[in-house]
Amino acid sequence: PAAAGSGIPEVIGYLNGSSPARLMNFTTMLGKIVGVICAVGAGLCVGPEGPTIHIGALLGIGILHLCILVSDKIGMGGFLKQLRNDNDERNFVACGAAAGIAAAFHAPIGGVLFALEEAISFFTSKMISRVYLTCAVAYYVLYFLEDGSATFDSSTFTEFQLDLTCHISYYAQDIFWFALLGVFGGLLGSLFNKLVITWTKMRIKYINPKGHRRLAEALFIVLLTTIVITFVPYNYTCTTPNQLTKHTTKHFGFDTYDNHRVCMTKEIWDKLSGQACPNCYNHTKANWPANTEDEEWIESIEDLYESLKIRRGGCPKGQYNEMATLFYVSGHTGVGNLFKQGVYEYLSAGTILGYGILYFMLAGITAGMSIASGLVVPMLTIGGCLGRLWGLFINAYVKDPSDSFGADPGTWAMLGAAAFWSGSGRVTVTIAVIMLEITGKFRFLPAIMVTVIFAKWVGDWLTHGLYHELLHVKHIPFLADAVPKKMLFRVFARDVMVRDLIGFKAEEEVTRLRQVLSDNSHAHNGFPITEDDEDGQAVLLGVVLRSQLDNLLLNHKGGLKVNLGEVMNETPLVVTPDMTFQKTFFMFRMMGARHLMVVDRKYHLQGMITRKDMEHSLHHAKSTDEHDFYATSSASQGTSDDPIEVDIGYAAMGDSGSKPGHLSQRLLVPDSEA
């Protein structure tokens, strides 16, 4: 189950301080690799980029653990001892995830920015340098593995690089149309998020609890996708090759093709200039295409289709099927066909609209299915459809042929992809840089910046970002980078802490340990270790983790009791009940903590705060008006000095089963039972 989906929300949650079950192990990585190969190879509306990020994160932590294991075996364990902590593990995961982005998109700088903007919750300059080095190495290794050449040429290693006969330009007033495209990208991205989240909630409630239902859903979606891809193209008419150059005369009235105000791909220009078939073509529109019955002409146009990734899809020789050109190719090739420049009208508006709607629905219901799959390629595809339609609209109704450059729909498809990606994923700098790196169109940086920021503004106004919505739906604790203003001075640690704690003694009975660990109602990971003082109050000695107890009992060789003092953390993170929520929050976020112990000045244990307690309180603050929120906060004050009873045997980690302070209690308990 941990290998399902893209893995991006889980990696983001892990780097924020959470530890989703079975997220970082070898079986998950194996399932992820095999699953994404099968899913992409089957032609589903998914992409490999998201799983590649998760696989990179798994490789990062796997390499660290392998090095530690080898160093222990050869007697050099002390050399890597300093790396045996959660903070360094998360650093390796961050580097691996960034390398996954660099490899997936051929975008090393985009990988660094993704780690900083979306993945890593707290970073230093040293961390940035490590991520940058990792992405650079991943990029160069991938280049030499794919190209196999000792000569490095980055222009040939760009995902969607095209060779044109002109340089595409735009005017300053076009920024208005870029911004409007960004608005539509934000609207459509929010609608896509709504579809994915709604379907995911239904899947969690009705499908995921039963294994045979998950299998049946996967088979159904594979069958549905196969039917759509196979049969829909046959309902579209065939297209003649003159559609490839129709844009040179339809709107701009040029009698010859030798005019660089309208772009054309180099492959077509070579045909028109007579280099490939001298007897078939000439420069004038009146006689092209000529000799359509000639075998030499047919072979020449078929070669052109192959070089342009155009598919016949059952059409006669010399013609092509527009819908098959989008459906009968891989996801990356489909995006490239939408981005294709210099062939303005080789895909009609009706074809793009129909394909976009079908792909939108298929991608929405496929996302989150019990397979390894990513959403970046679907986002680029849907956004590419939006942008290419927008480009056709601009040429038909906005551009003045007498004094302006033609708006290449392929360029607008690139901008539409950036807008939709930003409108759904809500990252800005990363998307802008990745779009530049995968297309090589650096002159369009201002246009990409405008569309991306407008798409994010509109999307934020409507919904949350997709990955952060999935964090909430999957119940992965995540602490954002800011505290609501209403919580700055009126909420304290005592208001959100878990009060009724059950812990262990330093010398604990084995039977009691086994009893607590086997109790499914205590699905927690942190246990306080205490001893009673002369007044009978519990004094905190340390904290022990569930994994440490499991290992201790596994290696236990006899005796009625075990000494937990040998494995517990004697210096856990602690706060006082009067510490403000803001300071407590930043301790969690900046240090990647999973729990904080709340003690008074004499180190008497008062409670425990977990990531879920923090998340519940933040959610409560955002969903409650200020008056009710302060009333709830005030009701919980004045109780921090009351001694608490520590029942030996409870694992307080802030999940279900805990009894939190008033703020969390109002959120977890229905009003009728509060």
Describe the secondary-structure layout.
Elements: H1 8-16, H2 26-41, H3 49-73, H4 86-105, H5 108-119, H6 125-147, H7 175-207, H8 211-231, E1 238-239, H9 247-250, H10 266-272, H11 295-307, E2 320-321, H12 322-327, H13 331-339, H14 349-366, H15 376-397, H16 409-425, H17 429-439, H18 445-462, H19 466-473, H20 493-496, E3 507-509, H21 510-518, E4 526-532, E5 538-545, H22 546-554, E6 561-563, E7 574-575, H23 581-591, E8 595-599, E9 605-610, H24 611-623, H25 626-635, H26 662-668
Parallel strand pairs: 7-8
Antiparallel strand pairs: 1-2, 3-6, 4-5, 8-9
Describe the structure.
- With 674 residues, the protein is mainly α.
- Helix content is 53%, strand content 6%.
- The protein contains 26 helices and 9 strands.
- The chain has helices at residues 8-16, 26-41, 49-73, 86-105, 108-119, 125-147, 175-207, 211-231, 247-250, 266-272, 295-307, 322-327, 331-339, 349-366, 376-397, 409-425, 429-439, 445-462, 466-473, 493-496, 510-518, 546-554, 581-591, 611-623, 626-635, 662-668; strands at 238-239, 320-321, 507-509, 526-532, 538-545, 561-563, 574-575, 595-599, 605-610.
- Strands 7-8-9 form a 3-stranded mixed beta sheet. The protein has a two-stranded antiparallel sheet with strand order 1-2.
- The longest helix is centred in the first third of the chain and has 33 residues, at 175-207.
